[in-house]
Amino acid sequence: MSVHIPITLRKHGGRKEIIFPDDATARRKPDNTLVKALARAFRWKRMLESGEFATIAELAEREGIAPSYMTRVMRLTLLAPDIVEAILDGKQGQEVTLARALEPFPVEWEKQRII
Q: Does 85 map to a domain?
């Protein structure tokens, strides 16, 4: 007797990840790199809004990262709330990775859902 399970293995962040078919009922674990990026983005936004830092350049210098990278990560705060929740729950699509999330996306929430 043999059992056929339609999965694919993909390298992701230096480790192998099991990719289930779209109709699989198995629950994916949240993508830690994406979750950490979201947490940093909202933390940085809060630090700027509170007046703790006057500019992104000042905050980026303190964090030891490039201002251009910081602005790309902070753009994640513009994601629709349901998309952020899906990422935190690990329910985002398999194609949603940190690299893809850092690419430019529309500000309108409705348009974000159809990309």
A: yes
What global pTM score does this model have? 0.74
Q: Which amino acid is at 50?
A: S
Residue with tokens 């929430």: 109
SS (H, E, C) the chain: CCCCCCCEEEEECCEEEEECCCCCCCCCCCCHHHHHHHHHHHHHHHHHHCCCCCCHHHHHHHHCCCHHHHHHHHHHHHCCHHHHHHHHHCCCCCCCCHHHHCCCCCCCHHHHHCC
* pLDDT exceeds cutoff 70 at 114: yes
Please state the domain count of the chain. Answer: 1
- Domain, as residue range, for 40: 29-113
Residue 23 lies in a domain: no
